[in-house]
Write a structure and sequence with these properties.
With 182 residues, this protein is an alpha/beta fold. It has one domain (2-180). The chain is 43% helix and 26% strand. It has five helices and eight strands; from the N terminus they run E-E-E-H-E-E-H-H-E-H-E-H-E. Strands 3-4-5-6-7 form a five-stranded mixed β-sheet. The chain has a three-stranded antiparallel β-sheet with strand order 1-2-8, with no helix packed on it. Helix 2 (66-100) crosses helix 3 and helix 2 packs across helix 4.
C-alpha cells in the first residue's frame, strides 16, 4: 500500500497500484529546475495496465476566498485550464523521465509503454472538493467542469476524463481509500 496526503486529504492506494506522488518526485523536480513554470499532477499511477493522471484540488473552507472565487469563476474555466496544463506538463516530463531517471526506471518505462498504446485509454481524474450547499449544485458544477476539461484535453486521444468530488472518487479510482485529515 502507498499512503499519501494531499490538500488535507489522505489517499491510500492498495498494493495493486504502481503510484508516485508525481509533483514531489525527483523526476518532475529535475525538469522544474530548468523550466521553472513546469507543472505536474499530484499523482501519476498505473493500475491494471491503465495510466492515471490525478489532480487534487481541495477548496473546502476556502470557497469564499477571493483567490478561490477567481479560480472557480467563469464556470471553472481557469481551474480546468490549470489542470489541463498540469496533465500536459506531467505527460511531457514523464516521457523524459524514462530516459534520464535513476529512480523508478521500471515505472517510467511502463508509463511510456502505456502512453504509446493507442488501444489503452489514459485516465485523467480531477478531484475537486468544494463547500456546496446541496448535491444537485455540486453535480451540476462537476458536469460543466468535466466538459471544459474534456475540451481542453481534446488533443489527448483515447482518454477518459472525469471531474469528481471526494465523496465519489473511489467509484472512479479503483483500490483506493480516501479520508479527510482530522
Amino acid at each position: 500500500m502507498s499512503d499519501f496526503q494531499e490538500s488535507g486529504i489522505n489517499f491510500c492506494f492498495k498494493s495493486s497500484w504502481m503510484i508516485l506522488k508525481y509533483d514531489d518526485h525527483i523526476a518532475h523536480k529535475k525538469v522544474e529546475k530548468f523550466l521553472k513554470s513546469t507543472k505536474a499532477v499530484d499523482f501519476l499511477g498505473i493500475h491494471n495496465d491503465k495510466l492515471y493522471f490525478v489532480e487534487i484540488k481541495n477548496y473546502r473552507g476556502h470557497t469564499q476566498d477571493e483567490s478561490t472565487k477567481e479560480v472557480l469563476g467563469s464556470k471553472g474555466e481557469e481551474l480546468m485550464h490549470r489542470i489541463a496544463i498540469k496533465v500536459r506538463d506531467a505527460m511531457a516530463s514523464s516521457i523524459g523521465s524514462a530516459r534520464f531517471s535513476t529512480n523508478d526506471n521500471e515505472f517510467f518505462a511502463k508509463v511510456n509503454q502505456l502512453l504509446l498504446d493507442d488501444n489503452n485509454k489514459i485516465m485523467v481524474i480531477a478531484c475537486v472538493e468544494l463547500d456546496v450547499s446541496n448535491e444537485k449544485e455540486r453535480k451540476a458544477k462537476m458536469g460543466i467542469w468535466q466538459q471544459k476539461l474534456k475540451q481542453k484535453l481534446s488533443w489527448l486521444h483515447a482518454a477518459k476524463i472525469s471531474v469528481n468530488s471526494v465523496d465519489n472518487i473511489t467509484d472512479i479510482i479503483p483500490d483506493l481509500d480516501v479520508s479527510f485529515v482530522e
